[in-house]
Amino acid sequence: MTVAAVHARRLRQSALFTLIVAAILLLVSAAGPARAQSSPAGADPAQVKTQVRDILNQPEFRPEASVSAAAKLAKSIREKWDSTYRAIKQRWDGFWRWLNRLFRGSDLPGAGGVAAQVFSRVFSVAFLLLGGCLVAWLIAKLIASISLRRNAKLAKSRTAYDESEEDEGIVLEPNAWLRQAGVYAGSDDYRRAFRAVFIAMLLLLDEGGLIEFDRSRTNGDYLTLLRSKNYKRVYDLLDPLVIEFDRRWYGRAETTADDYKRIEKSFELLRAIMSEPAPSSSVAVSAGRI
Known about the structure:
The protein is mostly helical. The protein has helices at 3-38, 45-56, 69-104, 111-156, 174-186, 190-207, 219-228, 232-250, 257-274, 282-286.
């Protein structure tokens, strides 16, 4: 190819490039006014606010609602319950799979069907009965515990005296009450004999300086005094007798000669404790020697 031919070719390429650039410029300049005419001169503020509000109301722009403590606790309990239920269900299903494999492996004809069904029904009934008995036992224990605490509180809030027996309130000597208890027991009035010995025990504690006897004081007041002075042995002896006294005297429970003899032994035990040598220091008292 000659030099003139090469030069002519370059001229044609330059002319073609110039035409393409000019065409692009014309297209851009023509599209500019069209876009300016299509765009609004100014947007309506109310419309803009509405659009912004609609956008912010989308789920991805909403803040998470605050969860109350009760809702969190309920959610936690529900999750723990679901987790416990799934664990129990898995073990229960595993047990029944093991049971089915056990009976399917039996040599007896039809053992995998009839025997498994019979055992399933028997086991289910036994399980329900056992569960019902357990629930009933727990409820009974709870009721008994509440009743025992209530009765103990009531017993400690009462006194050893009746207002109608003011003549007995004059005597403040323990042995006099013991002799009166013997008179009651001789006429088979073991309920009054039990009470007389109980009052003699209180008067014995007053003589020893462990309590401050007063007709208006309640049995709970005496126990509080013993506990505050750390007379553990005396407190442990008197505490159950307070409840028993309330049950027999105010509750009018049947009282027998054996009950009377048993509280007499408690009186003698208290007298033995009171006759022990006094502790040499406050350390011995705090150790619960009395």
